[in-house]
Every structure is written in structure tokens, then in C-alpha cells.
Protein 1
Amino acid sequence: MQNFRIGFALISVLFGSEAALAQDDFPTHFACDFAQGYSWTYDAGKYHMTPPADLAFEIGKIDLEHQTALLILGGKPANGLKVVRAINANHFIEVVNEGFLNLTTIYDRDPATGKYPAVHSRHFGLFGQPVFAQYAGSCVVKP
């Protein structure tokens, strides 16, 4: 067990430092578009699945060192975001006024397309019933 812990610690140090170096060049503003996904609602003891409407927003003022960013909707600042750094990705967490959560993960740039693959999840409730959505899409750097 001790060898496993040492090996895991060594891997964490090696990959962790590579991730930190790679994220030094991470952009500070993205325009994201999510055209694929599904939404689920819970009603009468069952989940019901429907395709959600397309979703687009921006994430700006990304500060990885301070782990903060800004959600931008329709060109206007909407809400502060918490940033959680990961190897090959950054997670942007929004806690909305009612305490529900939205999570966007932006992965490293795809060299073939120049886009950043992304996933967006929403976890909320409506009239006391669970509602959640999962989107797949991509983000592009916005100057």
C-alpha cells in the first residue's frame, strides 16, 4: 500500500506541474455554444427526457490564479463563477440565487478544429420537481 501511495504522489506531482504550466496560457474569455443535449424533468414518479433548446453564453474575466470568472449572457455580466482547475480542463461553477448549480467544463483546445470541447450541466428545480440538463458543445476564444 505504501508503494501505491508513493507512486500516486509522484504521478500527481509530475502531472500536476504539467497542468499548471499548460494552464498559464489558458484564454481569459470564451464564447460557448451548446447545440446538443437533453433535459430531464421528474413528474408523477418518473423522469421525462426532452431535447433542450440551443444554449449560448460567454465566460469572461477568467482568472485561474484567483479561481474566478464571469458569466456573460446577451453581452451583459450575469453572475460570478468559481473556477476549479483540472488536468486538461477547467470547471466553471455557478451557484444561482435559489442555490441551484450550473457547471461548465472547458477542455483543452482541439488542434484539429481550434475549438475547445465543452460540457454544460444544469441542476435545478421547478415547482418542487427536479429538473436537470446536460449539453455538449464547444467554446472559442473571444478577443
Protein 2
Amino acid sequence: MEFPERLTALRKARGLTQLALADAVGLVVLQIRRYEGGTSQPTLDVIRRLAIALGVSADALVFDQDERGPDEALRYQFETVSRMSEHERQFVRELLDALIVKNQVAGAIARVAVSEKPARSTRKQGR
């Protein structure tokens, strides 16, 4: 679902008219119609105000429900970690940071290797 459909669905689920939402956000109703019609995109400030008026996170306006965030298995693990002591949570965060950095470095190395491969073969052909 795209932003215009999410905005419309959230507004209707809250029982708000376009005019009521516009008033709550401090916009003219025409601008809400443009957002819902897909002819205009809100600024970050307007997304923030829409989220507050609709009682949702900005992520709920911008992303589909399963488009962002952990899958169910990771969500369960994160919930379990949240019940650990602060020391244990800090250890888990550091471990995750290390794994993320390791993955990013491996990806960067792979990209460099791919981008250098044609350059090396071009140099050999020029000799």
C-alpha cells in the first residue's frame, strides 16, 4: 500500500473527515486531498504532524506493516532481550553492532572486488 492509501485508511479508521484531519494538522483541506490523491507528498514536518493527529508513528504512515522492522522470530528475541539486565542488554547491543559492522565491511569488500575486476582486465588488455 502506498502513502496515499495508508493516509486515507488511517484517517477513516479514526473516524475523521478530510476537513477534521486538516484542522488537526494545521493544513487546508485541499492539501489533505492532494496527499490522499497522490498528487502531492508531505514534508517531514507534515508527516510528523499527521502522525501525531492520527495517533500513529511516522513509520506507520510511510511504511507497510511488514516492510520495516524485525520478523517474528527476531521480534520475540528482542522482547526477551528487553527483559534482561542492563549489563546483558548492553552486551547484546555490542554484539549486534559488531555483527552489523562485519556484514557492512564484507559487503564493501565485495563491491570493491567487483568494481576492480573490470579495471584489472582493461589494464591487461592495454599492455
Protein 3
Amino acid sequence: MLVVEFRMDSPILQDALAHAPETIVNHEELYRTSSGINYLFWAEDSDLAAFKDGLTADPTVTNVSQLAETSTGRMYRVTFTDYGERIATFPFWSGLDISLLDLTGSHKGWDVRMRMSDRDTLHQFRKVCEENDLQFHLTSIYEENKATSKAEARLTTVQREALTTARELGYFEIPRQASLADVADQLGVSSQALSERLRRGTTTLIDTVL
């Protein structure tokens, strides 16, 4: 199996994200019902009021519902509009035997990590993107193995970025070479948001490795 990482310039939620450019959207769940495609996600670390205003006016989604709230973000459930469903690649995933590992959105686009069976599947998926006028920018592609599959599959992109950046800056060194604020500044997020990502990422690593 291959793990494919790429950036996609999709209009999904882009109007909402343009209202609050510092907002990061983290994937929670995507599924189809009789009423359409529902999407659950967390919106974190920004002017959440501005994001909600943009969300209600975004042409790609409707039926906006806030399901939960923490000190750093809110969980929403939305339904894709007819336009949103037309440009979504989700309906093609099952036919191509593709599974989503992680999905993170910002006003700059979507960072995606997927599991695919082979390069031919990747070629077919890229063709779907082209047919829907979605720009596809491949970041990396590698063979999945036992050492990476469990932890990689469960760590989100922002959690992995937080952990690796903290490690690179010396946050985990003894004595500590960088503070939480130093790492947060490097990532462009608040210290509180970074702390939450580090805790969630560490918990995931402990659960999957130990």
C-alpha cells in the first residue's frame, strides 16, 4: 500500500476560511446520508465568530450545526450543497479503494494524506481532480509498512507537525532548549492550541505504540 500526501486547491469551505484566514480545519468524519454528504470537522485557533459568519454564507455547504466547543475550537457538522457535492472527490473514494488518513484545511488549500493501493490508483485519482478543475500538488509518496502504519494513520497532520517541530527546536530536550511559546511562534499558532495538539499527538503515539 502507498501513503500519498498532497495539497489540493478545492473550493470546499474556502469562502468560510477566507473570512478568518488564521482558522485551521481538522477533519473528523465524512459520510453520506439520504440527505447528502455530511462533513464533521474542527475549526481551531482563530476568530471563530468570523469563521461561523463565513460558514453560513459558504456556497459549498449548508445545514450548519455546532456540535461541540473547547477552549481552542469548535466542532461543526455541515452538509454539502449540490455545488459542493459536484466538486467533491469523496464519491470516488470507494470505487478507487482509497482511504483517508488525514485532512487539514486553511485559506491556502487542503493538505491531504491518503492510503492507495498503487500508483495506478493515484493516476486515476489525479484524473478525477483534473476533471473537476481541482489543482493537485503531490508532496510525498511512500510505501506503508508496519513501523509507520498505525501511528501515521492516527496522527493528524497538525499533530505530527507540532511534535516534529517541537523535537527539532529542542522542546523535548533536557534541559529544554525551546519553550512552548517558541514552538508556537514557529508554527504560527497560540501556545494553548499547540499544547492541545502536543497532548493529543502524544496520547495517540502512546496508544498505538505502547
